[in-house]
Please model this.
Amino acid sequence: MAENFRRRGKFEEVAFVFPNAPQIPITVVAFDDLAQQQDQPGIFRSRDYFHSLIKAEIDKGIPSNRIVLGGFSQGGSLSIFAGLCSPYPLAGIFGLSSYLLLGPSLPQLLTPKNLSVNTPTPIFMGHGDLDPLVKLEWGQETAKVLRELGWTVDFRVYKGLQHSADPKEMDELEEWLGKKLPSQG
Model:
């Protein structure tokens, strides 16, 4: 994604950080069962790692309101979770073919500070209507839960798309990112 942006002269003043996730087992049965099937300690470790990456960028002089967390599939799900729990206000969060980690537990995991700092953070979610791995319904339910908690979620469905990215989805994400990270000249 970053290489594509660079070739087209987009986001030239943006640093892209793509962490590698550890290999961990995951079993997904149904949206209501997702919280019981998830490795909560591992998710918390990943959240803390994402927060350390945000802090490292802030320590380099990047304002937190110029930082966007995002990813695809499990990376998008972790980005959403870490972004919601972030102690720093972010420019945005995106998740493609993603769902809400620890969904039913989320309200208890968010502190008043998380809510006051992050509910203004906009969220972009893109999902294929034929995704056999991360069901469309899980993405839709995630957007619904986040909206009920006060977040603004731009949820888009891509017809015929399975568990993959789509050129239209990338164009719409690029447009969304451009609004969240306008050039500072």
